[in-house]
Structure formats: structure tokens, C-alpha cells
Specification:
Blueprint (H helix, E strand, L loop, with lengths): L2 H4 L3 H26 L3 H21 L3 H22 L4 H21 L6 H8 L7 H20 L1 H9 L1 H6 L4 H23 L5 H14 L3 H26 L3 H21 L1
Helix pairs in contact: 2-7, 2-10, 2-11, 2-12, 3-4, 3-5, 3-6, 3-10, 4-5, 4-10, 6-10, 7-10, 11-12, 11-13, 12-13
Length: about 270
């Protein structure tokens, strides 16, 4: 089926718009994730969101808003525990995400019947995105991007060296808290598209690919966004044309681009 004919389907239009919005958001945040070596953070929040999804299904509520609130609470707890207990951040994240995921599994035990929504959140179902999901995604993305670009210099300085940034007057604690909250919200938004299992890949693959070929930080940032958008479009097209799972197709498309960048860099 020709590409232009595919665009006549409303569900595919919503999927493409949501994918491009989330690709932009996750790529921008992914730059700081890779700089700060926080890859485990996105994976942990994604798994922790299962408890929020389970609570929503058990209460008969829409899963996305409840999962967003739950992830926000988990992000704040991680931030506070980092400063209160003498444990590495990855240990704190590991404890919280396993406990939250276990809570989600237990709560699902009390949810009657088969829950197709849970399957879509585990493995992604971007083609099932509704208008409400799209508006929530666009609103949260706009708010996070405004903060990112107004705090660009301080956030970048802080990601390279927190001590020097603090001496220079950057509000390190505030920026760190907002970054954690932004990552949590962006990750849960991505769960609908890629699923709990795969969402952290879109935080890591585009910046990692860009880093192989970029010559400076500006190129690194811009190329991360470009790679993310190409990954989304290629994955969605492959998913629709060959009847493949959307989340897995997007991640595989990103992996192919990463491999091509690695070969290009070597040559």
C-alpha cells in the first residue's frame, strides 16, 4: 500500500504525530541521560509504572494519567532517597522499581478478567493511541521542552560537572529534581508507544547513535533528534506494512541506525 494512502487512516495519523512528539522529547532528554549515565533510570521508571497501570485498571480509571502520577511520585522518592541514604542511585532505583512492579503484579491478581490494556502497556501499542492520549502527550512534552531550552546552559554544565556548576551558581538540586520528574513523565508517555519492556531504548539509541558521528555538542543534540524521528517513522512504516509489533519495530529500526553509524565511524 502506498505511503500516502496509509496517511488516510486516522489511527495511523495519531500514531505518527504521537511518535514524532515523543521522539523529540525522548531524544532531548536522552542526551542528558547518556551524559549523566542514567540509562537505568528510564528502565526503572518504566517498570515501576506497572503499579500505576494496575491501580488504574483495578479502579476502572484511564491508565495513562494514573501511571503518570505514580511515576512522578517514584521520581521524587528517588531524588529524596539519594540525599538521605548512603546507597548508590542505581541501588535505590532497583529497589523501588522491583517493589513497584511486584505491587503491580499483586494488584493485577485482583483485577477480574483478561486485561488487553495491560498487554499493550507491556509491549507497546502506538496504533491504539487515542485523541486524549495525544493531547496529554503534547501538553507534557511542551512543558518539558520549554524547561529544557530555558535551562539549557545550566543543565548541560551540570551534566558535565555538578561541582563546578554549583560553584558557578547553577541550582543543581532543583535542576536534578526537575530532570528526574521530566524523565519519569516522558518514560511513561513512551510506555504506550514502546511498552514497559522497550521504552528505555528510545532514550538511549538516538543519543548513542548521534554520539558516534557528531563532531560537537550542538551536532550531538540535533542529530539525536533527527535519528529519533527517523527511527519512529521507519519503525511505524515497517510495523504497518509487515504487520509487526510497533514497539519492537521501532527499537529494531533504531538498532539498525546505530549499527550503520558504528560502521560509518569505523570507516
Amino acid at each position: 500500500m502506498p505511503l500516502l494512502e496509509l496517511l488516510n487512516y486516522p489511527f495511523l495519523q495519531r500514531a505518527i504525530i504521537a511518535g514524532l512528539i515523543l521522539g523529540l522529547l525522548l531524544a532531548c532528554l536522552g542526551v542528558y541521560v547518556t551524559l549523566r549515565r542514567m540509562a537505568f533510570f528510564g528502565d526503572g521508571i518504566a517498570h515501576a509504572s506497572l503499579a500505576g497501570i494496575a491501580i488504574a485498571l483495578l479502579a476502572g480509571l484511564t491508565p495513562l494519567p494514573v501511571a503518570l502520577v505514580w511515576s512522578l511520585v517514584v521520581a521524587v522518592i528517588i531524588f529524596l532517597l539519594e540525599r538521605k541514604v548512603k546507597l548508590p542511585t542505581d541501588s535505590i532505583i532497583g529497589i523501588l522499581f522491583t517493589a513497584s512492579m511486584a505491587l503491580g503484579v499483586v494488584l493485577m491478581r485482583f483485577t477480574p478478567g483478561y486485561q488487553p490494556d495491560l498487554v499493550s502497556y507491556l509491549f507497546g501499542s502506538i496504533l491504539s493511541i487515542q485523541n486524549t492520549d495525544l493531547w496529554i502527550t503534547a501538553g507534557i512534552t511542551a512543558a518539558i521542552l520549554i524547561w529544557l531550552f530555558t535551562s539549557f546552559r545550566g543543565l548541560t554544565f551540570m551534566s558535565l560537572t555538578e561541582e563546578s556548576a554549583a560553584v558557578a551558581g547553577v541550582k543543581v538540586k532543583l535542576h536534578t529534581l526537575v530532570l528526574y520528574v521530566s524523565l519519569a513523565l516522558a518514560t511513561v508517555l513512551g510506555v504506550k508507544m514502546l511498552g514497559i519492556v522497550l521504552v528505555s531504548a528510545l532514550l538511549i539509541l538516538p543519543p548513542a547513535t548521534s554520539r558516534l558521528i557528531a563532531k560537537n555538542f550542538r551536532q550531538y543534540f540535533i542529530l539525536s533528534v533527527v535519528v529519533a524521528e527517523v527511527t519512529i517513522l521507519a519503525g511505524l512504516l515497517a510495523s504497518f506494512q509487515f504487520d509487526l509489533p510497533s514497539g519492537a519495530s521501532i527499537v529494531l529500526a533504531g538498532t539498525v541506525l546505530f549499527c550503520l553509524a558504528a560502521v560509518f565511524r569505523r570507516r
